[in-house]
Amino acid sequence: MKKAYRIKSNTDFQAVFKKGKSVANRQFVLYALEKKEQTHFRIGLSVSKKIGNAVTRNRIKRYIRQVFYELEDQVSHNQDFVIIARKPAADMDYHSVKKSLEHVLRLGKYLKKLKHR
Length: 117
Fold this sequence. Notes:
RNA-binding, single chain, Ribonuclease P protein component, RNase_P, Ribosomal Protein S5, domain 2, ribonuclease P activity, hydrolase, alpha+beta
């Protein structure tokens, strides 16, 4: 995923937390903030040390980035997203993570339906 698609600065994270809307399921909390001037979405990831060691945390972050890479055409483009992983995410494989994130994105209505060709 390109660097332009990531949220890195603390001020950006705080803006999404304060002004954004949140949706959650058991594995993830998703905060989203609409930015009209933005042409693509950006994601910020937060995976606490409570979830596991560095290997586990980095694997979860890789999975989340890959899901957003695959869903790029369906996700709302003028949004900043912050995803917080909860404890059950540590035991999930890639397909479970994808299913769970799709669920959260649908709950918040951030996922567009693709037209079948």
